[in-house]
Amino acid sequence: MAAHSTSNVEIYNNTVINKLERYITPADENDGVLGFLIGVSSNGSPVRIVSCALCKQAQSFNEELKQIQLLIPAGLEICGIFYVEKCAPSPANVLRKCKKLLTNKCWELISVDKLLVVHLEYGSNNLDDSNFYSYHSNQNQVDECSVDPVDVTSDLQDSMVTFRLQPSFTVDFTFENNQDILQSLAQEMELLQERLSSENTVYHITNSNVLIQCDQVTEISKDAACERLLDYIQEDVDDGFDVPGMKSKGGKKGGKKTKTVVESIGVQVLNNLSGNNNTTPILQYEQKGLKSMAIGLPMHVVVLADKSTPVSQLPALFCQGLCNQLKAMQDNLFMYYKGGQFSTPEVYHFSLPGFPHLITTVYPKDKSEDELESHRKDLHCKLLLAPDRPLLRRANRFMFADDPNRSVYLTNTHVGLPPSGVEDGREYLVYGTYAYHHYMQDHMDDNGWGCAYRSLQTICSWFRHQGYTEKPIPTHRQIQQVLVDVGDKAQKFVGSKHWIGSIEVSTCLDQILDITSKIMFVNNGAELSNKGRELAVHFQTQGTPIMIGGGVLAHTILGVDFSEVSGEVKFLILDPHYTGSEDLKTIQDKGWCGWKSGDFWDQQAYYNLCMPQRPTMI
């Protein structure tokens, strides 16, 4: 696709283009494909398309549009649609399709005035500006539009502010019998949404004195850009006397302003009980035999706002996010209602490949992962996710920095490393998240003998983080007991300081996690430099960390930088022999996690590589 100096549309995520292009290949199942384009529509700026989703059934277009809106953060919206047809793209064909598909009811769900429409011709060879159109609902006309692909997905985060609202509501309702319980719940959920939409709802910016209510704002101008709220957030600072709880606030004259790095801005949801209510309460008594029920709704809403958004516009976004999540919770309550019993809804956020924003879904608390498999398959289909790996299990959830369940171990310590320097090289890296396990952790002195155990723990952490297992990370003693149980070691091995190697690591993965592994053998370290292509294929197809053992040392390989031109390869190594604190800067600067050339390996010692194979599951 050609870039333009001026454009009506910017596609901020190259993955979107790749997903669209796969539908123009001549495959029978592609004919009739229909989907949604998700993005940001700001006044005076081009529409920014950041992700896309599939509509499974054209006849349920409106319902599926609503479902997609419940999955994305408030602040993003459905900015367009795409479809596949055998006819060539033209304004007349696009207008015909839009008039047929986009009913008045549909436009009630879409907030943009001009809808981006991508007409994909079945069997065509490429995707260019001739596929992109802008549909004006009010004028009932179609215009051609230019598109500017932007490869840097981080630009979305750089241009947006993330807000998090975590209120907890309790829905109390009465009903006569189980036949009307769902209707009674729906009525109460609607009333709750009405209360949140009222002028009495107040939003308090956490750790600040800022209150926002409709167009009334304290501390900061209501016309100020919302990114200015960061200047009003208080933070703990060192007063030099070790006095806890000292605060500093920026943004006000006389305040000691310190630079605050904030992952997201917390927002508390309050209700102004005094309000402006001038009505007289009326009490009506009616004697009936009623049952009552209370359902807790622990919410966790994510809202994205362009940094330039005026503070006065935030209440509408917050309300939209709250109401959307309440609708998602109601859908979940209805879906899993059985025999007069409801399952408590729980909110999960996911950072998914191809999405520069979070996806949010609701799962019932008391249902197992196996019971939710069909639900996950449906989401994988809608979000165009790989059908052979878990991405939406609870273990895959995104954890914010203040999450109490966040791992105490450093994760993905390779992120932020400088390039390896391989000329014409391409990086093939571990997929997803792993935890760095190394010497002296967990109050265990394994210095000098536990490196392979730690590498095994890192691999196990990868399978946990990716949702393949919920089993805890095995301890050294548990690893030793497994090897005794399978007859590989004598009983006295348990509690010893004896080393293990790649074969033992493979055995433990099989016994503990039911994970099979391939073993690669090389006669000496020099031979590893000839294995760049094979290792690249492993990271492309499996994406798992590799344990390598040889001589007296064990390491974890997280990736390779391999040149098809020269054959040169460098290895991304995670070293379990580190004994220090969880200091990422030290770990990277001192090379405990870093790129290594072929001479890193002992040129005379043989090596075995344990290459875990990920199971096919969802």
Summarize the structure.
23% of the residues lie in helices and 25% in strands. It has 13 helices and 27 strands.
Structural class: alpha+beta
Helix content class: 10-25%
Shape estimate = globular
Number of strand elements: 27
Oligomeric organization of the protein chains: single chain
The gyration radius over C-alpha positions equals: 28 Å
Beta percentage is: 15-25%
Distance between the termini: 33 Å
Please, what is the average pLDDT?
89
Write the layout of secondary structure elements.
Blueprint lengths: L8 E3 L2 H8 L12 E7 L6 E9 L5 H11 L5 E9 L5 H11 L2 H4 L6 E8 L10 E5 L4 E4 L2 E3 L4 H6 E6 L2 E8 L5 H16 L4 E5 L5 E3 L2 E2 L17 E2 L10 E2 L16 E7 L19 E8 L2 E6 L7 H22 L9 E6 L8 E6 L8 H10 L42 E5 L21 H15 L10 H10 L16 H12 L3 E6 L9 H10 L4 E5 L2 E11 L5 E6 L9 H6 L3 E4 L10 E6 L6
Parallel strand pairs: 1-3, 1-8, 4-5, 9-16
Antiparallel strand pairs: 2-3, 2-4, 5-6, 6-7, 9-18, 10-17, 11-12, 11-16, 12-13, 14-15, 19-20, 21-24, 22-27, 23-24, 23-27, 24-25, 25-26
Helix pairs in contact: 2-7, 6-7, 9-11
